[in-house]
Design brief:
The protein is of the alpha/beta class and about 350 residues long. The protein folds into 2 domains: about 120 residues, Enolase-like, N-terminal domain (Enolase-like, domain 1); about 220 residues, Enolase-like C-terminal domain (TIM Barrel, Alpha-Beta Barrel), CATH 3.20.20. The strands form 3 sheets. Strands 4, 5, 6, 7, 8, 11 and 12 form a 7-stranded mixed sheet that branches. A 3-stranded antiparallel sheet has the order 1-2-3. The protein has a two-stranded parallel ribbon with strand order 9-10. α5 packs parallel to α6 and α6 packs parallel to α7.
Length: about 350
């Protein structure tokens, strides 16, 4: 399992259903795929979809700063390799590009370990392949009032027990409240509604609008203010009844320490691009000690291994963004998703993607 080669690939694959977030322009799924190969021929893969560009910068970070640290090392020592990359890039990193690049490599390393041992990651980590609840996300604000409701109703018809809609950015406060009210009316009381602000409000706005949304029994209010405004999160959590959640834009457990300490954000949503499997497992452990649960941000095909092997899982998030990319996509049945039984993370990109969809800037 000595690491003999690391290769990167940049892709730009069309969306099957382009998202309309209202604040990001996403014309294609821009991916960085990394392969870690060992001397015995085992190949593990990881990938990044950073949404807002930077693929060539991330690729350069892998090749210039991280690849030299890993070639010739034992791929089985994943946590030790994480620490080696972390310490070697501390001056330039701790967040941002370096941690995202490290995350892609970490995912690939764990995949290689699982494939070498013939075990899926959830089994390698002592978990169980029980199905986990998954909410239908992507009721994007750019779809408008009617479009958000129509998409949510499709999710409900497919057996999802929860959906996520968006507010802020494109709407006035009154429109946001009306949109949530009408979504609740359309779905009835049996479907959970998560509401995502995407960091679009001030603290005062979040308290004012969030307080009015309390009446519609929403499951959570997500990222109401900028990610680094920890005091703001805590103030909002104290002021409204709806749980306040976040974490997708935080890097590693170090960045989440204020939430572990306050325990006022009951559900954390770490993103695998901002820590890889190694840090997501550390985050889950810290969260469990603090009485918090974990609902990973996006990437359910990868995150399902985590939620199947930790004591404090909450939800998985589904947007169907990548279903057409996989050789064997995972399926949602009755609003639940189970981890694959294939070795490693068990997800392989269709080989034709690398020929047909080279990255375009």
């Amino acid at each position: 399992m000595i690491i003999s080669d690391i290769r990167t690939h940049l892709l730009s694959v069309p969306f099957a259903d382009p998202p309309r977030t209202g604040f990001l322009s996403l014309g294609a799924i821009d991916l960085l795929v990394v392969e870690v190969e060992t001397a015995s021929g085992i190949i593990g893969t990881g990938h990044l979809h950073p949404l807002a560009g930077g693929l060539r910068t991330l690729e350069m970070c892998i090749n210039e700063m991280l690849k030299p640290l890993l070639i010739g090392e034992d791929a089985l020592q994943v946590e030790a390799l994480w620490q080696r990359m972390w310490q070697a890039t501390f001056i330039q990193g701790r967040m941002g590009i370096t941690v995202m690049a490290m995350s892609a490599l970490d995912i690939a390393l764990w995949d290689a370990v699982g494939r070498a041992q013939g075990k899926p990651l959830w089994q390698l980590w002592g978990g169980r392949p029980d199905p986990m609840p998954i909410y239908g996300s992507g009721c994007f604000r750019g779809l408008g009032h009617d479009g958000m409701i129509e998409k949510a109703e499709r999710y409900a018809a497919e057996g999802f027990s929860a959906i996520k809609m968006q507010v802020a950015h494109l709407f006035t406060h009154d429109e946001d409240i009306a949109n949530v009210r009408d979504m609740r009316t359309a779905l009835g009381g049996s479907i959970e509604i998560m509401v995502d602000v995407n960091q679009g409000w001030s603290v005062d706005e979040a308290i004012t609008v969030g307080g009015k949304l309390d009446a519609y029994n929403i499951a959570w209010l997500e990222e109401p203010v900028m990610a680094d405004d920890f005091d703001g999160y805590h103030t909002i959590a104290d002021a409204i009844s709806t749980p306040v959640v976040g974490g997708e834009n935080h890097f590693t457990h170090h960045d989440l320490k204020p939430f572990f300490a306050s325990r006022k954000v009951p559900i954390l949503q770490p993103d695998i691009m901002r820590g890889g499997y190694t840090e997501l497992r550390v985050i889950a452990e810290h969260a469990h000690c603090a009485g918090l649960t974990i609902a990973p941000h996006m990437f359910p095909e990868l995150s399902t291994h985590l939620t199947a092997s930790i004591p404090n899982p909450s939800w998985l998030e589904y947007m169907a963004w990548y279903d057409h990319l996989w050789v064997e996509p995972l399926t949602v049945e009755g609003g639940m998703m189970a981890p694959p039984g294939r070795p490693g993370h068990g997800m392989d990109f269709k080989p034709e993607l690398f020929r047909e969809f080279p990255y375009r800037e």
